[in-house]
What we know:
By secondary structure, the chain is α/β, with parallel strands linked by helices.
Amino acid sequence: MKLLYKISLGFNLLCIVGLIYLAMNGKGILSNFFFKYVIQVRHEQKLSMFRASPVSTGAIVFLGNSITEGGNWSEMFPEKHILNRGIGGDISEGVLKRLDEIIRHQPSKLFICIGTNDIAKGVAQADILQNYRAILETVKAQSPATKIYVQSILPVGKDVIFGHSNKKIVPLNNEIKKLCIEMKITYIDLYPGFLNNEGFLNPIYTNDKLHLLGKGYLIWKGLIESYVNE
């Protein structure tokens, strides 16, 4: 029985990994199914919950994908009123389309970290930057008192299976930084704080070469603490 259980568990894990890989890299029916009926459905569920929540005027908002979603920001900064608006699988276009839910709170501060899933999906760098510009312009126009902080995209591990790539993350981060300088928005370079000696996401901070463990979030906290508290 134990052997059968182990075989079953191993098979299920392989199926899950395979689905994720196909979703991020694959073409055709299975990839489209995953995005439409798994990621998209969950995105709609989370956004519906956010919209059903009361307005929290002046809150600090963390906006991004699953990496942001995984952070217990309100526990890491218990003295602050924080809303976590990370949604797993989200991309820059998705963030742009749900900005109204962010703006209704008129946040005191907005911490943005988005783009790694764009790379995995093959979105062109120019399109990602166009979405970034639209996000920043919209927040500045519709929530002018909000202090915006753009955080760099984090590195990924060596041979990560999800389609993400440091070779694409680094130049995109450079362009995002240039955009922030142009628009006079604070840019926080998280990227080097997570690297190992080989130039990849340090394995002590992750168990899947993409998402963070608790130690990773503590590093993140240390890198932004002065901005949260200023």
